[in-house]
């Protein structure tokens, strides 16, 4: 069987993590994240327990004690301003590529934010799914960072997923999308 890779992209609060959880739960895909090493580093820097959930928007948008900075800001600046700009633009792309090549058969990449990330997934035969949500609950200021700008939609290769209804409707749409993509495997 060939490798199945889905890369999820969308603005903060669009439903990327929710979609990834649905795909993992229903189809057994492993969740892979460009930001996972950054999240581990932020936990280490601030002495946070491994139970501290930096995927939870309320936690991510809360202030770091003793500062006027959110955990989201720390993640964005460590991942992009330090990792991509000061060390190597493809730092996070390379670590995810290695994991996809050697560790996993079926994977959903939860946080495609830059064109090179999407290009790597496409090159590996994966599909990019753009999640759109009009009334998302993104925290103030989260859209201003370049990591939240999103990537260009390519109509010939990418897919769109509407998340403008309730959770049950969104879950059905995600399941239908995966079955449509990989019908021979999951049909």
UniProtKB/TrEMBL annotation:
Entries under Gene3D superfamilies matching the protein: P-loop containing nucleotide triphosphate hydrolases (3.40.50.300)
Pfam families xrefs: DNMK
InterPro entries: DNMK (IPR048444), P-loop_NTPase (IPR027417)
Protein name, per record: Uncharacterized protein
Organism: Neisseria leonii
